[in-house]
Amino acid sequence: MPETIDICPTSDLPPGAMRTVEWEDVEIMVVNCNGELLAVEDRCSHDDGPLAEGEIDGAACTVECPRHGALFDLRTGKPQTLPAYVPIETFPVLIEDDVIKLEVD
Ligand code: FES
Fold first, then answer.
1. Is pLDDT of 77 > 90?
2. 10 Å Cβ neighbour count for 27?
3. 84 within ligand 1 shell (Cβ under 6 A)
């Protein structure tokens, strides 16, 4: 049964903004890519790099791992470049009463 966790009011995460949240030892980054709200695990599948510290391309909706440069699609979690080849986890984002929420399980 998925659980829903509140992140923040929608006004706190405008386009281009990012924030991290921790849920049961999982670090999750929530990104507003040009109005599209996306959430992925904040941990690179290559060697646990902190993705939230990497560069986000808001136009392409990608994040570049700061450790060895793997590029991940924030919509699908799939790596677009090596050295990562395993997708990172993605989380559904909902908006209810102007509050951004994540579905986690
Ligand atoms: S830890 Fe992310 S590319 Fe190596």
1. yes
2. 14
3. yes
Which distant-in-sequence residues (6+ apart) come within 8 Å of 66 by Cβ?
49, 50, 51, 53, 54, 55
User: What is the mean predicted confidence (pLDDT) over 73-84?
Assistant: 98
Which residues make beta-bridge pairs with 64?
55, 71
Q: Which atom of ligand 1 is nearest to the CA of 83?
A: 3
Of ligand 1's listed atoms, the one at least distance from the Cα of 68 is 3
Number of CB atoms found within 10 A of residue 87's CB: 15
pLDDT value at residue 23? 94
Q: All domains of the chain, ordered by start, with CATH?
A: 3-104 (2.102.10.10)
Whole-number pLDDT of residue 41? 97
Q: How many angstroms does the Cα of residue 69 sit away from the middle of ligand 1? A: 6
